[in-house]
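User: Watch each token:
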Amino acid sequence: MNSSTWHPPEKLRWSGPNTTIQLATMLIEMTCLRNRCPRVLFILLMVTAIACAADRRPSPSPPVTLTPAVVVAGSPELIRVEAPATAQLDGEWLGRKLEFFRSRDGHAWFALAGVDVEATPGSSTLHIDAKLAAGGVRDLSRTILVRPAHYRTGALTVAPRFVQPGPEEMKEIQAEVQLKEKVFAASASEPEWTGDFRAPVAAAPTDSFGTRRMFNGKLASIHKGMDFRAGMGTVVRAANSGTVVLARPLYYEGNCVIIDHGLGLFTLSMHFSRIDVKEGQHVAQGQPIGRSGATGRVTGPHLHWAVRWQGAYLDPAKLLRLNLAQAR
């Protein structure tokens, strides 16, 4: 090499994957020209520079990602899987079967899942197998840390019959438990929802999800829904499209509407003063389904809205914040 014949590159790109290599090449050539280093040393320096530049390139995205990335008890999760469209996906997480569907653009597989509000924090295994059309199975399982969610304790005063029901009320409650088990046992085999979920009512929400509820001084349950400060008669709408699978009065829930959104995902709206839909009816997102009220176990007019997936109760506020447009 001759210093009189070397010239800097006429157009040096200062961005992109080759920038580091270009700069390293120029500096090495200048150093060797000044110090008259041997050709072998020059080649070794070039190889080192290229290897270092390769290490700095962005690593490929993992085949399985969760949103939100930080998983807590009560959190809904959008699971994205990079796998061929011809693959068959099977999955299980925390004892619940995952149902996958192809994204709107056809680039990935998705499952809308979650962690129950009463789940025990700690390490868990997200099991995912992709059966390839050409044969063979690809194991995409990964470890997921479930972090604790810090929920508060609240005290309420209600009519004594809602804390200590009599014999006749207990028969009614048991019959309703069996009815709800039957309703939740069946769900549409495909997602019926489209895009993001929207708040069911134009009213301020509370942070009551997960609260340990004390009724008349006794711990009765964990609050598994989200309360909205909706005045009597406020219009309540479907948060997303689906099929009404229950629309009737219940002992604790009062006038209640349950919508099946497919693949084990349900939303429950409680304490209506009036129900405006029928069981078996398909509803679109934003369609009125009833009016808020104070029926059932309540202290006053409001809307209780809950999200249930495969028997797990999830934080409705987190579902409303999830970007689901990428999925369908």
